[in-house]
Amino acid sequence: MSKQFQFKLVLLGESAVGKSSLVLRFVKDQFDDYRESTIGAAFLTQTVTLEDQTSVKFEIWDTAGQERYKSLAPMYYRNANCAVVVYDITQAASLEKARSWIRELQRQADPSIVIALCGNKLDLAARRQVTEEEAKKYAEEEGLMWGETSAKTGEGVSEIFTAIAKKLPLTAPPSARGAGRPGPSSRTGVDLTKQANAEQASLLPPVKRSRFHNATITVLPGVLSRHSLAIPSVVPFAYLPRTSLVVYLSFTFF
Q: How far apart are CA 158 and CA 136, in angstroms?
């Protein structure tokens, strides 16, 4: 029987480098020229099957790149097993931003996290500002994986995620415990035989819910994102660092 494992993966990088497009190509093999900027974070899953038939399911957190959301990033890379830090090969400044994200991961993430530096928009190579040599040298100096991709054409996308899957320690025995749940470690395998290879999922279920007039107050264990509501987005209310809780408000108008 083939082994199956589940790992938490987070995407980081400057706004507009193509993080969401990269995930969309990996998960659904699609590309949208007019994708809107991510608000907070999006959560998707996809499975990679290795040569020995081992299945690696990625829980993918696609984070917002705008500076105003940067303070929320630790909630998403907490307990992450791997990270893809994306830059735009046509924008030199985006590599500097990627370096900043990598330094933050090296300081604050799990020391064993697998980090891949990904140069996106390979289809625009004629406008390249970041050379392969520069990015590859930096990756080697920092002990990172490195590759270039085009979310638009699909070039290199599956290869970089497969390379990450091969790099992860596939030694944990399969169990019924869910990888990626809040806790000291999320490196546990799960039985995925009855789950679809790719899906777009909602966040973890709220641990507490109460109503006050037309407002719903929801408390989540260290997670903040956008829900399907009658209005465009969730309104952040408060983040409680000592308790790892986020409180946010969602409004339904009658």
A: 19
Per-residue tokens: 192: 């995925």
pLDDT score, position 75 = 86
Please report the pLDDT score of residue 172 as a whole number.
Answer: 52
Query: What residue type is assigned to position 97 of the chain?
Result: K
Question: 95 CB contacts (<8 Å, ≥6 apart)?
Answer: 87, 119, 130, 134, 135, 138
In this structure, are strands 4-13 and 55-63 parallel, antiparallel, or unpaired? parallel
3 in Cβ contact with 77 (< 8 Å): no
Residue 210's SS3 state is: strand
- Rounded mean pLDDT for each run of 10 residues along the chain, 254 residues in total: 90 93 95 68 90 94 71 86 98 97 96 98 98 98 98 98 95 42 40 42 37 37 38 39 43 37
Burial status of residue 203 (CB atoms within 10 A of its CB: 0-12, 13-18, 19 or more) = middle
Residue holding tokens 């589940």?
6
**Residue-range domains of the chain with CATH:** 4-167 (3.40.50.300), 202-251 (no CATH)
Over its C-alpha atoms, the chain yields an Rg (Å, rounded) of: 18
Residue written as token pair 């819910």: 209
Report which of 1, 50, 46 is spatially closest to residue 170, judged by C-alpha positions: 50
